[in-house]
């Protein structure tokens, strides 16, 4: 097994920079620079030297194999965060026999291989590092702490019990008065499918928290959509003008609304048009608005929107500084009503986010759907009864395997490269 090392903190000038070394030669490598190492899990201040050359004065922290993040020997060098310091220490480590630079996510991959984290926790760790808002941080931390593994284990235990009940009747099929286990088996299958379906129902909201909700501003040309976007963004993200048909491309602005990641979309004004380029813009506006989680319809007075609002969408009167208005009314120009609009959007999205479960990816949705299919076929076999018991038990085992793939106990080798490719070096 190679010993790997990398800068674990962000690149560039910083107060402190941490280089992490993991593998069988981690302590030996750290010792070659730092001299006598502090006791494991005790920080010690050391002069790092390469021969006679002083490299830095650093804090050194060691974790023994079996009690570290990766499960291997880990040594950390907490350096002064100068670009030149990091660079000279990385070079010195690269010259140590048996050491090489880590690939992206390789420390975490080792943690997975050594059973320190399950696959869902690895995804949670990846999400945690990507987290920019409070909701993302909370959701990722829950997953990193093993929330997915806990639900999966509870479901799996029920399926294992149901399969065992069936197996028992197969083994004792010759008895005079066979016990009918099917009510209990059906009950267990029903409980697990109900819970799995509920989790599928909560997955969309969790996915939105992870990726961000999309909120589209739509309305007729000149309604003031781009002006509103700029007011919300606090900067001139979109061009505005008195010429109808100014916006053509969809303009995206990322925001944090009450701890939720939101991508706000400014779109082309909706109208029939001879202008080929504008028409493409209108087409994009319609399709992005339809796909968005929420639409803000910016209306002229008494105007009927060109696409249909859905339940929960916001109908807002624009240019409220020019005309008296009722209900939700804003002026992108003066800023009047913008705070109330933000509050209304935040309230609606917060309501949806409240329905989030612990699973948040397409991979999870697929595994849950596979589990449901196997549970349905198992239930059908139980209901048919008699000779089909073996098939019912097999369906239950398949469902259990689908659930286990969530935490990576089976068939996930092919997923790993993709998952780790998105990690930074040093994680
Ligand atoms: N300096 C430093 N800070 C860090 C990390 C790190 O690697 N180094 N982490 C990196 O992500 C996070 C903390 N995660 C960690 C997870 C497990 C262990 C660890 O040593 N686990 C052992 C001992 C557990 C214990 O003492 O209770 C184990 O699980 O056996 C360390 C850090 C955030 N802060
Ligand atoms: N008085 C007033 N004028 C506004 C307001 N919002 C926008 N305008 C003006 O209305 C015109 C159109 O504004 P835009 O924000 O470009 O309108 P838009 O909806 O993005 O238009 P398209 O991109 O063409 O669809 C500009 O001259 C703005 O200055 C407002 O709240 N009050
Ligand atoms: Mg515009």
Brief synopsis:
The chain is about 45% helix and about 15% strand.
Kindly describe this structure:
It holds the Pfam family MMR_HSR1. Its EC number is 3.6.-.-. Homodimer. Heterotetramer of two MnmE and two MnmG subunits. One of its GO terms (biological process) is tRNA methylation. GTP binds at residues 222-227, 241-247, 266-269. With 427 residues, the chain is of the alpha/beta class. It folds into 3 domains: 3-117, Gyrase A, domain 2; 124-208 and 361-408, Four Helix Bundle (Hemerythrin (Met), subunit A) (Up-down Bundle); 212-353, P-loop containing nucleotide triphosphate hydrolases (Rossmann fold). 47% of the residues lie in helices and 17% in strands. The chain has 13 helices and 11 strands. It has a 6-stranded mixed sheet with strand order 3-4-5-2-1-6. Strand 1 and strand 2 form a beta hairpin. Helix 4 runs antiparallel to helix 5 and helix 7 (182-211) runs antiparallel to helix 11 (362-384). It is flat and about 75 Å long. The two termini are 18 Å apart. The mean pLDDT is 94. It binds the ligand Nc1nc2c(c(=O)[nH]1)N(C=O)[C@@H](CNc1ccc(C(=O)N[C@@H](CCC(=O)O)C(=O)O)cc1)CN2, guanosine-5'-triphosphate and magnesium ion. Guanosine-5'-triphosphate (GTP) is lined by residues 219, 221-227, 240-242, 244-247, 268-269, 318-319, 321-322, 331-333. Magnesium ion binds next to helix 8.
């Amino acid at each position: 097994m190679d010993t790997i090392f990398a800068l674990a903190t962000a690149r560039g000038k910083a107060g402190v920079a941490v280089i992490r070394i993991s593998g069988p030669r981690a302590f030996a490598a750290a010792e070659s620079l730092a001299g006598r190492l502090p006791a494991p899990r005790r920080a010690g201040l050391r002069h790092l030297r390469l021969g006679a050359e002083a490299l830095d004065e650093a804090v050194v922290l060691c974790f023994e194999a079996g009690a570290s993040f990766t499960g291997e020997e880990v040594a950390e060098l907490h350096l002064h965060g100068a670009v030149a310091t990091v660079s000279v220490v990385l070079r010195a480590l690269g010259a140590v026999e048996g050491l090489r630079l880590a690939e992206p996510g390789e420390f975490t991959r080792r943690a997975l291989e050594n059973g320190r984290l399950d696959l869902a926790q690895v995804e949670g760790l990846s999400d945690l590092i990507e987290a920019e808002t409070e909701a993302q941080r909370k959701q990722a931390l829950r997953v990193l702490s093993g929330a997915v593994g806990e639900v999966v284990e509870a479901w799996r235990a029920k399926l294992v019990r149901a399969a065992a009940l069936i197996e028992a009747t197969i083994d004792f099929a010759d008895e005079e008065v066979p016990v009918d286990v099917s009510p209990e088996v059906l009950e267990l299958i029903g409980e697990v499918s109900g819970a799995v379906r509920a989790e599928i129902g909560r997955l969309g909201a969790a996915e939105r928290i992870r990726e961000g909700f999309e909120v589209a501003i739509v309305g007729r040309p000149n309604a003031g959509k781009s002006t509103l976007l700029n007011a919300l963004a606090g900067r001139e993200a979109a061009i505005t003008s008195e010429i109808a048909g100014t916006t053509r491309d969809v303009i995206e602005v990322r925001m944090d609304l009450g701890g939720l990641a939101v991508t706000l979309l400014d779109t082309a004004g909706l109208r029939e048009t001879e202008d080929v380029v504008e028409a493409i813009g209108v087409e994009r506006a319609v399709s992005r608005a339809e796909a968005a989680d929420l639409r803000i319809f910016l209306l002229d007075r008494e105007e009927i929107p060109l696409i249909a609002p859905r339940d929960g969408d916001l109908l807002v009167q624009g240019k409220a500084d020019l005309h008296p208005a009722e209900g939700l009314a804003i002026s992108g120009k003066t800023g009047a009503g913008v705070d109330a609009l933000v509050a209304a959007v935040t309230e609606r999205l917060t309501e949806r986010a409240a329905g989030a479960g612990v699973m948040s990816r397409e991979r999870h949705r697929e595994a849950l759907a596979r589990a449901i299919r196997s549970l349905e076929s198992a239930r059908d076999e139980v209901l048919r009864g008699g000779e089909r018991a073996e098939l019912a038990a097999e369906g239950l085992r398949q469902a259990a395997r689908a659930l286990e793939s969530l935490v990576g106990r089976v068939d996930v080798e092919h997923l790993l490269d993709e998952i780790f490719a998105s990690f930074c070096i040093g994680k």
